[in-house]
Amino acid sequence: MIKKITKLTMVMLLIGTVLAFSVIACQSPSADTNNKYGNWEVDWNGYNPKPPESDTPSVGGGEPEEEPPTEDTPTVTYTAMIKSNTDALNVRSTPSTSGQVLGTLDKGDMVRYEGEKNGWYKTVYKERTAYIYANYASVTYMRQASDKVENVIAVGEELLGYPYVWGSQRYHWGNGVINTAFIPGQFDCSALMQYIFFKGAGVVMDLNTRTQVLQGETVERSDLQRGDVMFFTNESRVNNTGVERVGHVALYLGNNYILHTASDHAVIEEISAKRWSYYIVAKRFV
Question: Does pTM surpass 0.90?
Fold first, then answer.
């Protein structure tokens, strides 16, 4: 016998269909066994996105939320960075469009975040307080490493914007003895590495890339960590062999970012595909 469907039954069937469709729709993309959706981890006791290992825009410039550490879980801390969202973003001496332009950032370049004032992000650039218009930038987080590594990075962040000077004077002679002819604010790639490691951690690095690459502990690419020193070849040395193939050095920060002196100035930027094609080896000094 065919049963009659009442209006109430029909409504209940429609509601059930909608709910079932919603459950299916919310399952894409599906979580893995650790309740992770890509870079985001879901706390099923209440949705609580945490900063992933890659850059994560902050909300109101606050600190990233963290799960309370357990006895077996080391405390993880993050450092806040300002990322340029456009090319030729001015870095100014005051939080105003009338402030002196100290330099510019390309899209994706980063500098240290030190606060916000009247719609401007505060940072440090060429060893002085500087400002970036917040409408064209965002605050992101990077996972911190040991105190020694962070000290080295902090010294490097102070020097961002200084010009690249090929064959610049070294801070010391490769043995810790200070070079009295050193000119502050002038660095090529190996001079910058030597300076920040000596100032930040007391580590004595040699004079150029081809001798620095013989120092430190070799690190596999798969084990690359914040604070490791990366060595590359370049167009003029790519066909050389041995240490003569080494032509550039940079400090790895994580999230595919490096701090180095490029062909124009000291900068924090992403590692391009071309630069990765020139990668040779990484060394750990601290």
Answer: no
